DNA sequence: CCGTTATTCAACCAACTGGTTGACAACGAT
DNA sequence: ATCGTTGTCAACCAGTTGGTTGAATAACGG
């Protein structure tokens, strides 16, 4: 629904592919064109072009124009968004684990459904 | 190919869905059973059961047994793996951006293909 | 044993994804 | 103007995903 949710959808989906993660890793070293990016892989140039497009629509890279070349650059901002989302819940998970809260996990007092992992009738 | 790559595949793919991210957000507050997790959504319980399975196979949650219930807990470790991956490249992207390295981006001296965004014949 | 609760399995379906090939567009060089 | 380079678009295909429903399993409470 929400816009930042769709951005996260696309960003996570984009990185859920080893080739695209590899592209990101290589772009961290240096900007590159689609042709250069495609070179090391067995697959077609078109396939890589698609991958780059996915990364671009996810906001993970941007592109400029230089003659017929369209160099690709990493775009930090969206990585930041992802980190923030993950870190928020990683921290919770860690804290709850270290406090052994898991054993007393409880909420549910708004509906018929009352107990959680332990009985409480 | 590599094992940690597959883990990242599954983890990123798992979070590329708003329902699953919502499940994670709710599990950060408290552990819960599949039934409790399913309640707020319009869709079937089975669908949520599948979502939880995806999260579990991605290593983002673990489950225990308590009678017929199978409470779900957040598992920090995999979040950590993701953060580390992302942060590594976010940092690069940011540094390169602030140094305006983008303008001089160059590598390629190992093959016939020589120049990048600028000519160098 | 039998019923209830909690959850999963199985089969199916529509939509999406990652790959292919072939044609085409954009630009620079000649 | 035409050619080579660089990249995209379009159509297609196989495999995966997210959802459905209905049946099955697991664990407890009589």
Would you give an account of this structure?
Chain A has 121 residues and is mainly alpha-helical. Chain A has a two-stranded antiparallel ribbon with strand order 1-2. The longest helix of chain A is centred in the C-terminal third of the chain and has 23 residues, at 76-98. In chain A, a hairpin with an 8-residue loop joins strand 1 and strand 2. The first copy, chain A, has five helices and two strands, in the order ααααββα. Chain A has helices spanning 3-15, 18-29, 34-38, 45-57, 76-98; strands at 61-63, 72-74. The two termini of chain A are 38 Å apart. Chain A has one domain (3-120): Arc Repressor Mutant, subunit A. Helices cover 55% and strands 5% of the residues of chain A. The relative contact order of chain A is 0.12. Chains A and B meet through helix 1, helix 2 and helix 5 of A and helix 1, helix 2 and helix 5 of B. Chain B binds a DNA duplex (30 and 30 nucleotides) through residues 13, 17, 19, 33-35, 43-47, 49-51, 53-54, 65, 67-70.
Query: Which protein chains make the most extensive interface, counting residues with beta carbons within 8 Å of the other chain's beta carbons?
Result: A-B, 57 and 58 residues
The oligomeric state is homodimer
Nearest-angstrom radius of gyration of chain A?
Answer: 21 Å
- What is the helix fraction of residues of chain A, given as a range? 40-55%
Strand arrangement, major sheet of chain A: 1-2
N- to C-terminal distance of chain A: 38 Å
Point out poorly predicted stretches of chain A: 101-121
Summarize the structure.
With 121 residues, the first copy, chain A, is mainly alpha-helical.
């Amino acid at each position: 629904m929400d816009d930042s949710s769709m951005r996260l959808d696309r960003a996570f989906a984009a990185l859920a592919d080893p080739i695209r993660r590899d592209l990101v890793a290589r772009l961290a070293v240096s900007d590159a064109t689609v042709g250069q990016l495609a070179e090391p892989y067995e697959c077609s140039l078109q396939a890589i072009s698609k991958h780059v497009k996915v990364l671009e629509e996810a906001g993970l890279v941007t592109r400029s124009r230089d003659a017929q070349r369209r160099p690709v650059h990493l775009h930090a901002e969206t990585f930041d968004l992802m980190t923030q989302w993950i870190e928020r819940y990683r921290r919770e998970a860690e804290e709850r684990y270290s406090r052994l809260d898991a054993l007393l996990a409880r909420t549910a007092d708004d509906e018929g459904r009352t107990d959680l992992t332990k009985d409480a009738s």
